[in-house]
Amino acid sequence: MLYLLAEWLGFEGIFNLVRYQTFRAGATLMTALVIGLIIGPRFIDLLRVRQGKGQPIRLDGPQSHLAKRGTPTMGGLLILAALLLSLMLWMDLRNPFVWACVAVTCGFGVIGFLDDYDKVSKSSHKGVPARLRLLLEFVVAGIAAWIIVGQINTNLYVPFVSGVSVPLGPVYYLFAATLIVGFGNAVNLTDGLDGLATMPVIIAAGTFALIAYLAGRVDYSAYLGIPYVEGAGELAIFCAAIMGAGLAFLWFNAPPAAVFMGDTGSLALGGALGAIAVASHHEIVLLIVGGLFVVETASVIIQVFWFKRTGRRVFRMAPIHHHFEQLGWSESKVVIRFWIISIVLAMAGLATLKLR
Predict the structure, then answer these.
(1) Which three-class secondary structure state does DSSP give residue 318?
(2) Pick from 150, 148, 190, 171: nearest CA to 277
(3) What is the pTM of this model?
(4) I need a labelling partner for 341 at 20 to 30 A (CA). Which of 186, 236, 347, 349 fits?
(5) Rounded Cα–Cα distance for residues 180 and 138 (Å)
(6) CB 309 within 8 A of CB 300
(7) How far apart are CA 241 and CA 45, in angstroms?
């Protein structure tokens, strides 16, 4: 909104600042943060009144989690409100990448909300049937992939090697949709401890803010040997909005959490990161930067696969963060150590920009 207004005024005077994506990224982060902090307390009180018993706690999970009974969920709505309001204010809304990422964020947010609502209303941890949820996610991701691929080619670029890509052709649509859905669910699986998913999402968003900005610049992308994607720079502002909204939510989600993110937030944020990676043509890099989410998902797949065939467990409990809890690690120790791992993986992902 402000970008279009500044453009209409010819970027005169102070409005010249709005021309720069770096300025708008910083302004978006601060706007989302302030909005989240302002509306957070009343929003959480409203959730607590409406939900009563809060998010159902699994009896077969770590016993320490039983103390969290009564904590409201659907805190992802707070994230989405702060994120979307800041985006509408600072982004160039004519950019198709913006709408593709907004479609995924909102679409996955709605699916997650329906899942959370079903759990709260029925006092059950089951939620919407998995097959139906996956079908809806693929529909949303497929639409986003169609919008994004309309602006980029269908090559899959290999990190660490300059100019090497795999032409996927029409298969790229399926690949892009699968990455978006897969990453949405990966973040969802990670969201099991207070702050565990939020900070790694913020770290990944910060990393992709830089990647998207560089990919959207002809000069920087040529120097680094990464694919140039016209218009990708606007996604740096989207990433900044995720960071600001995530920090605001973390203020209230810090142990002991006043609110849980729920599927409403985790699916939306994971899907958004997947869409940003596809739009900036750094799909494989996302698997490095978001390696923590990949490991969490892999631990569940391995556990289920091995248990069905042998009747034995590889981990004491999956996802893997519960395994470490069962080993005697405190919740805060698991969370902070996983944050450290996320930072290391983000650095490794950034290294791919130069090591080519």
Answers:
(1) coil
(2) 148
(3) 0.94
(4) 236
(5) 8
(6) no
(7) 24
